[in-house]
Design brief:
The complex is a heterodimer.
Chain A lengths: L1 E5 L3 H13 L3 E5 L2 H10 L4 E5 L1 E2 L2 E2 H11 L4 E6 L4 H9 L4 E4 L4 H16 L6 E3 L2 E4 L4 E4 L2 E3 L3 H12 L4 E3 H9 L5 H21 L6 E4 L3 E4 L5
Parallel strand pairs in A: 1-2, 1-3, 3-6, 6-7
Antiparallel strand pairs in A: 4-5, 8-9, 9-10, 10-11, 12-14, 13-14
Chain B lengths: L2 H52 L13 E7 L9 E10 L4 E14 L2 E10 L1 H48 L17 H52 L4 H31 L7 E4 H11 L1 H6 L3 E4 L6 E4 L1 H17 L6 E7 L2 E6 L8 H4 L16 H11 L3 E7 L1 E7 L3
Parallel strand pairs in B: 6-8
Antiparallel strand pairs in B: 1-4, 2-3, 3-4, 5-7, 8-9, 9-11, 10-11
Helix pairs in contact in B: 1-2, 3-4, 4-9, 5-7, 7-9
The chains are: A alpha/beta, B alpha+beta.
């Protein structure tokens, strides 16, 4: 995907570019409102990542401009302000996701993946990864064409793993993706462990390779390179 | 002592002092004046008696006066009597059967070559009576004057002090967080008006300082999010790189977890500040049963991991007018608290009776008071990961809506919220 990143904090922008480039995306970064307006006038992007508070304008105005121009473009807001009104305002003018800073790059990536599926394979967005097949619209998953009976959390977990395959995923990143930030980390680590244990058991039972690797002390990795 | 009592006492003591001395002085002055008059009359009488003595015409005699007595003595040659003397005496009156005060003028005159001593007595009964009358009237007048002055003084002062008392009451109820206009009543007394003005300026300054500080904290909290986002993203990239040694991994993970905790803390403090600043204005009727069930579902993992049984008898139709998001936060924090401090295979009872919802949980007894529990960053030793802000958020939300929240321990830990604000 071709992605425009509008974020005035250069260091943060660099991190996003680095993470997304290794995912195979084509990233362009701009650091202020003026530059961003120019870019969206001149070029087309599959997805835009916008910070609301820019030094010379509001990211919301950029979103409005984008919406005037092209309807299918994916938009993700990243903002320091995470209140409900801010979220609603952002989503109402047409953003697909609203991430509150600080966010996890893995989470941003997972959202991008879902936007990507929506834009590029409208309707037929099955995810096929070796023996695993996921139908995101129906929230169903298959191994060797046998359906996996997953709980809601296990399904979310699997999708998150697939979106961030071959990457180290931190426990905190997982916890916040699954529960939001109301759960205290110590508690959620135990549940993550339980959910992953169950998910792995179900995958193995249907003859799936054991892709879920524990990275000691850090978290997990959905490692496709083991085969 | 009240200022009013003090001024009244001062006023009373000085008026009584002046009144007593004044009345004594007045008595003597009046007495002197009356005596002078009587003397003059006696003098006139004397003159007329002398004239009579020297005239031969008996018809010329002055008619006797009932208040007057005249005694004439013939003097021997060698008797020496002062020529001219006024004295006061008491003379027994047979008619009234009592002594009556008289003023006497004694003088020597010659009659037919004889020296005679004439004493004219004039009754003082009438003038004494007059003095007493004047005295009585005067005393009554002065007392009435003093009393009415006192009453008037009290009334005007009380009226004026009323505004002062209202000011005092307003100041003692002053709450910088109250979100209502602080206004003092106008007074026609310059001093009170000055006081009001000074207080008004002071509270205005406190308010603006407080608002500035709040704005500053809010902005600071939001600005902190940016560097935190950078730290987190860099750490995540570092963890992805794969060429770290194990001890470096460990260090990065520890730092990553700490910065995550910091950002959670920051987000919670922003939330707390937003609740305090009443930034959740939109309210609607929230069905609490739905809210509570949603939160229980969210916390399912936590409930199952501790094998906790939940008893929930909230009525379907019980709704409260408040912000739905705050209602969620209120209950998730209360239920989370009830879970955290629970025992394995414990119990949580969510009970409703009229407008009161109680959330009780089993758990070890502790010595904390209800004030301690709602304090920020207050946490028990068995949950180091907790931020210690959950219950203070609960308390803040209750304050915003004037719900009364109480904690009590009776076999179970119990939080009671009265939703009839």
């Amino acid at each position: 995907m071709k992605i425009l990143i509008i974020e005035d904090e250069k260091a943060l922008s660099d991190s996003i570019v680095e993470y997304l480039t290794t995912e195979g995306h084509l990233c362009e970064a701009v650091y202020d409102f003026h530059e961003a307006s120019e870019k969206i006038e001149l070029y087309e992007y599959d997805c835009t990542i916008v910070d609301i508070n820019l030094p010379d304008g509001s990211g919301l105005d950029i979103i409005k401009k984008i919406k005037e121009k092209l309807i299918t473009l994916g938009i993700i807001i990243i903002s320091g302000r995470g209140s409900l009104e801010n979220r609603i305002e952002g989503l109402e003018i047409g953003a697909d996701h609203y991430l509150t800073k600080p966010f996890h790059l893995a989470e941003l990536n997972a959202h991008l993946k879902s936007i990507n599926r929506r834009i590029n394979f409208s309707g037929h967005n099955d995810i096929i990864l070796n023996e695993i097949k996921v139908l995101p619209d129906e929230r169903r998953a298959f191994v060797h064409d046998n359906e996996l009976k997953l709980t809601k959390k296990e399904y979310d977990l699997l999708l998150f793993f697939i979106s961030n395959k071959n990457r180290v995923i931190t426990k905190i990143g997982l916890a916040e993706y699954l529960w939001g930030d109301f759960m205290d980390t110590a508690d959620s680590f135990d549940f993550i462990y339980t959910h992953i244990k169950n998910l792995r058991k179900k995958l193995l039972k249907l003859g799936c390779e054991d892709y879920i690797q524990t990275v000691y002390g850090v978290g997990y990795k959905f490692d496709l390179s083991i085969t | 002592m009240k200022l009013l009592t003090k001024t009244t006492l001062n006023f009373l003591s000085i008026t009584l002092f002046i009144f007593l001395f004044g009345i004594v002085a007045f008595y003597f002055l009046l007495r002197g004046q009356v005596d002078k008059n009587v003397n003059l009359e006696l003098e006139k009488r004397k003159a007329s008696i002398i004239t009579q003595l020297h005239s031969d015409d008996p018809s010329n005699s002055i008619p006797p006066n009932p208040n007057e007595r005249i005694i004439i003595d013939v003097l021997a040659n060698n008797d020496s009597i002062p020529d001219y003397v006024y004295t006061d005496t008491l003379i027994f009156d047979d008619l009234q059967n009592r002594y009556i005060p008289f003023r006497k003028l004694g003088f020597v005159a010659s009659f037919n070559n004889q020296r005679i001593y004439i004493q004219i007595f004039k009754s003082l009964e009438e003038s004494d009576f007059l003095i007493v009358q004047i005295f009585l009237i005067l005393t009554i007048l002065v007392i009435v004057l003093i009393v009415s002055l006192l009453i008037m003084n009290r009334i005007t002062l009380q009226q004026s002090w009323k505004i002062f008392n209202q000011t005092i009451k307003k100041i003692s109820n002053y709450d910088v967080n109250a979100h209502e206009q602080f206004e003092l009543q106008k007074s026609d007394i310059t001093e009170f008006e000055d006081l009001n003005r000074v207080i008004q300026t002071m509270t205005d300054r406190i308010n603006s300082d407080y608002l500035n500080l709040k704005e500053y904290t809010e902005n600071a909290s939001h600005e902190i999010q940016n560097p935190l986002a950078i730290i987190n993203s860099k750490m995540e990239l570092l963890l992805q790189s794969g060429d770290l040694e194990e001890k470096h991994y460990k260090a990065v993970v520890d730092a990553y977890e700490a910065s995550n905790r910091l950002s959670r803390l920051n987000k919670t403090l922003i939330l707390l500040a937003r609740i305090e600043n009443r930034q959740f204005p939109e309210s609607k009727d929230v069905v609490l049963k739905n809210i509570i069930n949603d939160q229980l579902e969210l916390l399912e993992d936590l409930i199952n991991s501790k094998n906790i049984t939940i008893e929930n008898n909230i009525k379907n139709n019980f709704s409260v007018h408040m912000n739905p998001f705050l209602a969620e936060i209120l209950f998730i924090n209360l239920i989370k608290n009830a879970l955290r401090h629970n025992i394995d295979k414990g119990e949580i009872i969510i009970h409703q009776s009229s407008n009161i919802i109680s959330i009780s949980n089993t758990g070890p007894k502790h010595e904390m008071t209800s004030d301690d529990l709602f304090k920020r960053f207050h946490k028990s030793s068995n949950s180091p990961e907790s931020l210690g802000l959950g219950l203070s958020i609960v308390k803040k939300i209750c304050e915003v809506y004037n719900f009364n929240i109480e904690y009590k321990y009776d076999e179970m830990h119990c939080f009671l919220i009265n939703f009839s604000s």
